[in-house]
Specification:
- There is one protein chain.
- The chain is mainly alpha-helical.
- It is built from five helices and two strands; from the N terminus they run H-H-E-H-E-H-H.
- Helix 2 packs parallel to helix 3.
- The termini are far apart.
Length: 110
């Protein structure tokens, strides 16, 4: 089961967020739901991405400055993934940059 296999990673992600938000309580931490691979059914990536909103919501409930950005939704592997089927190509990186900017753009200096 993909979700069960991810338990150690999810616990580590929670721990890392706790460390960051404790060390820098005024910083905004943006957690990404990651892009799909260009092969397979992406079950592990989907399970990981499904866990992210709950992790972020728990941080927000604890009054920490954490939000998420969804890199998975609308990412088209046919046109946005490199020939290695793992990394984004230029179109994929542009897509990701636009997604990051949609979350943090208003926070950047002019």
């Amino acid at each position: 089961d993909a979700a069960e296999a991810l338990d150690p990673l999810i616990k580590a992600r929670k721990g890392l967020l706790d460390q960051i938000t404790t060390a820098a309580p005024n910083a905004l931490v943006v957690v990404a739901q990651i892009v799909p691979l260009g092969y397979g059914d992406n079950a592990v990536i989907k399970a990981y991405n499904q866990a992210i909103p709950g992790i972020v919501d728990a941080q927000v409930a604890a009054k920490k400055h954490v939000t998420k950005v969804d890199m998975f939704a609308n990412f088209t592997t046919a046109s946005m993934i490199a020939s290695d089927k793992v990394h984004p190509n230029d179109s994929g990186y542009k897509f990701m940059a636009d997604r990051w900017y949609s979350v943090i753009g208003s926070l950047l200096p002019d």
